[in-house]
Design a protein that fits this description.
This protein is an alpha+beta fold. It is built from 8 helices and 12 strands. The two termini are about 30 Å apart.
C-alpha cells in the first residue's frame, strides 16, 4: 500500500538506506521530510520503498523527484507504482523540469528512468580520503572577508564557466548578486584564500570533513597550486579531527580526478543526474 510518510518512519528509512546511500543520516531524512512537497512510502509488512518531491527552483518550476526501492524488493513493480503516484502529485502543478539523481556504480537504475523519458544531465563521482597528513605547503591562507568579494567572485566565474557550459548548468556564468555575496560572507569561516601579493591565487571551502569549490585563478593555473590548495584542505580538515574527508567533482574533469587520486582519494560512489523536460 502507498501512504504518506510519518515522522515515526524516519528510523526505518534510515535503516533501509544507510547500507547503500553514502552520507545519509537521520537528520538528513528529517530535513527532507520537513521540506518535501510530498513524501510517500510503499508499506507492506514494512517500508519497501519511498519517493519524495522537492521544489528546487520556484522561478524556473524545477522540481526534484527522488525514488528508492529496497534492494531485495526491486524488479517487483514497486518503483513503477511509486512513480505513478508521484505523477499524480505533479500533474496539476505543471513543473518545467523534473530532476532525479541516483548511483550508477551499484544496481544501475538508468533503464528505468530512460523508459520514463529522463535523459542524462551530468555525472558526479564522489571520493573519500582516509590517509594521513600531507606535506606542509609553502602557501599562506587567510579566511574569506567581504573585501575580497570581487576577486573571489571573478575567480569562481572564470574557474567554473567551462564546466558549467559543458554540462548545460545554467547560468553558465555564476551571477554576482547580493544573495551570492551574503552567502559567501555567511560561510567566511569555511572559505580559505591564498594570495600572491594582492592577487588572489586560489581558494578552497572546508566544511567539517567536506572540501569543495577548489579554485585556482586562470593566470596561476598549471603551476601546481591546485595540488597545494587541496593538500592544505586535507590537512586543515584532519587538524579539526575529521576522520574522513570527502569531495566530489564533475564527471569528465580528468585533471581533477587525476589530482585527487594522486593525493590518495578513492572513489566511493558515482552519481548521475537525469532530467525530464516538460
Amino acid at each position: 500500500m502507498i501512504r504518506d510518510l510519518t515522522p515515526k518512519d524516519t528510523e526505518a528509512l534510515y535503516r533501509m538506506l544507510n547500507t547503500e546511500v553514502i552520507g545519509i543520516d537521520v537528520d538528513t531524512i528529517r530535513n527532507i521530510y520537513r521540506n518535501a512537497k510530498s513524501f510517500i512510502v510503499w508499506d507492506k509488512g514494512g517500508i519497501k520503498g519511498f519517493a519524495y518531491i522537492l521544489i528546487t527552483n520556484k522561478e524556473q518550476y524545477r522540481w526534484s523527484i527522488q525514488l528508492y526501492v529496497s534492494p531485495q524488493e526491486r524488479r517487483k513493480g514497486i518503483g513503477t507504482l511509486l512513480y505513478k503516484e508521484v505523477e499524480k502529485h505533479v500533474k496539476n502543478e505543471k513543473p518545467s523540469v523534473l530532476i532525479t539523481e541516483f548511483r550508477v556504480d551499484i544496481d544501475d537504475p538508468t533503464p528505468f528512468y530512460k523508459r520514463l523519458d529522463y535523459k542524462k544531465w551530468y555525472g558526479s563521482p564522489e571520493m573519500y580520503f582516509e590517509g594521513t597528513t600531507q606535506p606542509d605547503v609553502d602557501l599562506e591562507f587567510i579566511n574569506y572577508d567581504d573585501k575580497y568579494y570581487e576577486q573571489y567572485a571573478k575567480c569562481a566565474q572564470d574557474c567554473f564557466y567551462e564546466i558549467r557550459k559543458e554540462n548545460d548548468i545554467e547560468p553558465y556564468i555564476i551571477p554576482l548578486s547580493d544573495e551570492y555575496r551574503k552567502n559567501k560572507l555567511s560561510e567566511k569561516d569555511s572559505i580559505y584564500l591564498t594570495f600572491d601579493n594582492e592577487h588572489l591565487v586560489g581558494a578552497i571551502t572546508i566544511k567539517g570533513g567536506y572540501i569543495d569549490n577548489i579554485m585556482v585563478a586562470p593566470s596561476y593555473q598549471g603551476r601546481g597550486f591546485g595540488k597545494k590548495i587541496t593538500q592544505f584542505g586535507i590537512n586543515k580538515a584532519l587538524s579539526k579531527g575529521e576522520p574522513l574527508i570527502q569531495l566530489c567533482y564533475m564527471e569528465g574533469n580528468t585533471k581533477a580526478e587525476s589530482l585527487y587520486k594522486s593525493l590518495g582519494f578513492v572513489m566511493v560512489q558515482h552519481t548521475h543526474v537525469y532530467r525530464r523536460l516538460l
